[in-house]
Amino acid sequence: MKSREKTTVNVLRMILSDLHNRKIAAGEDLDKEQIVAALRTAVKQRREAAEQFSQGGRQDRAEAELGEIEVIKAYLPKLLESDELSAAVDEAIANTGASLPSDMGKVMGQLMSRYQGRVDGKLANALVRQRLAG
């Protein structure tokens, strides 16, 4: 088996194991949103690990973590592009009638429910904060 295929197989095994454990903990089958959330968590964990390995001078391990991220991303819905996200934020602000930073929760709630799994919450948060502050 090639190195790349071995990585893919190992990552998929870890993901399936995590999903199985989450299913047992929930006591029922996972829905699509829960699966996407689990995959996003796995990406986040690997990104943090890659940063730690880079800071520790372990580029080989950092690259391995980044390779695992690419495998997982293949199973995630595509995130909105920056211009699409910007338009979605404007639409959510208009729909909620938000004008103050205190309205941020309403805007984020609508944005995250409408584009579930396709919005990077951190980027959306920064964009909403910027729009409501200015």
UniProtKB/TrEMBL annotation:
GO molecular function, one term: carbon-nitrogen ligase activity, with glutamine as amido-N-donor
PANTHER family in alphabetical order: ALTERED INHERITANCE OF MITOCHONDRIA PROTEIN 41, MITOCHONDRIAL
Designated name of the protein: GatB/YqeY domain-containing protein
Gene source species: marine metagenome
